[in-house]
Design goal:
Elements lengths: L2 E3 L6 E3 L1 E4 L10 H4 L4 H13 L4 E3 L8 H12 L8 E6 L14 H15 L4 E6 L8 H13 L3 E7 L3 H14 L4 E7 L11 H8 L2 E5 L33 H18 L3 H10 L7 E4 L3 H8 L8 H10 L8 H12 L6
Parallel strand pairs: 3-4, 3-10, 4-5, 5-6, 6-7, 7-8, 8-9
Antiparallel strand pairs: 1-2
């Protein structure tokens, strides 16, 4: 397991992060997604830590708080030193029927952070992330409340999920202008079947030294190797009942067809190839992996040992390439002459 700095901070995290979305049970989507009971959660966390993962990511919304509870119980039962792992959670989504039990208002953030601390059974959260956008609350109010959480010692660092580049940039400007704690990480959907963040968010992250934490790196299991053109609903696969995130299936089949022979050459799973490609991207800090059992967890972690050749990385990149969009195709055209002035080694 390799370790990387979290953006512009001094915090060190493993190149893989254990995602806790599968922890717990519930109704609706959680009956499918969250199915790991307490003993299974403890086993997964113990194994992940033993294999070098020091980063765990959950959210108050997962199984309506149950994921945080199970995560906290497991960490406590394992008797781990608090500074031996990095714990992340999120706030935004509905946690009750009331009008103010959702969103990024000062009210909900301050209620949410206290509730998460209680469920997790810790005195601070290492990375506190907004789960997305609140269309009603001004960014200034959200950032002020998050800064208060940091200054109160309840939170160490701030992160965000699922925002567009313009909104991320605006938040950084507000934080700089008001001398507030800024977002240091971007948790974004990023997989070979969904490379959209490479258009605007990756260049922004590089410029502002922000960590990128890909979620759903296997596109909801579609890139696990279980799916194919001939079997698009394999038994037991989560996507067979919870089809998320959205994916262009024809493009996905092309990617999978490219990865299968590469996986065979290395004697590994298709999932490991998909994860290894992400790990090979210099702009990726830590890939969030989810698992329902030890077999899935160990298979995913094994991707850290897989080194793809430059030709294999390029072949996969070509198969998963996005169509060029404006203004990028114009910028590329205009920049060619200038770039050719410098010799590339």
């Amino acid at each position: 397991m390799r370790y990387r700095k979290l953006g512009n901070t001094g915090l060190i995290v493993s190149e893989m992060c254990l995602g806790a979305m599968t922890f717990g049970t519930g109704e609706g989507m959680w009956a499918t997604v969250g199915s790991v009971p307490q003993d299974g959660v403890t086993e997964l966390i113990r194994t992940a830590l033993d294999r070098g993962i020091n980063f765990i990511d959950t959210a108050d919304f997962y199984s309506n708080g149950r994921s945080e509870i199970l995560t906290g119980n497991s960490l406590k039962s394992l008797g781990l030193a608090r500074d031996s792992y990095v714990l992340a959670t999120k706030v935004l989504l509905r946690m009750g029927a009331g009008h103010n039990q959702i969103g990024l208002s000062r009210y909900h953030i301050l209620e949410g952070v206290n509730a998460s601390l209680k469920r997790l059974q810790v005195d601070h959260i290492d990375l506190y992330q907004i789960h997305g956008r609140d269309p009603f609350t001004p960014l200034e109010e959200t950032l002020d409340a998050l800064d208060d959480c940091v200054r109160a010692g309840k939170v160490r660092y701030l992160g965000l999920c699922n925002l567009p580049a313009w909104e991320i940039t605006k938040s950084l400007w507000i934080s700089d202008k008001k001398n507030l704690a800024r977002f240091e990480s971007l948790q974004m959907y990023y997989s070979l079947a969904g490379r959209d963040i490479e258009r605007e968010i990756v260049p922004l992250a590089k410029d502002q030294n922000l960590a990128i934490l890909p979620w759903s790196p296997l596109a909801g299991g579609l890139l696990s190797g279980k799916f194919s053109r001939d079997n698009d609903k394999p038994d037991g696969a989560r996507r067979a009942t919870f089809d998320f995130p959205p994916v262009d299936r024809e493009r996905a089949w092309k990617i999978i067809d490219t990865m299968r022979p590469i996986a065979a050459q290395h004697g590994v799973s298709v999932a490991q190839v998909a994860l290894a490609w992400l790990l090979a991207q210099a702009h990726v800090t830590s890939v969030i992996i989810g698992a329902k059992n030890l077999q899935q967890l160990n298979d995913n972690i094994a991707a850290t040992w897989l080194t793809l050749s430059a030709e294999q990385v390029r072949a996969i990149a070509d198969a998963s390439a996005m169509p060029s969009e404006y203004p990028q195709w114009m910028l590329t055209r205009q920049s060619t002459d200038r770039l050719e002035q410098v010799h590339k080694t």
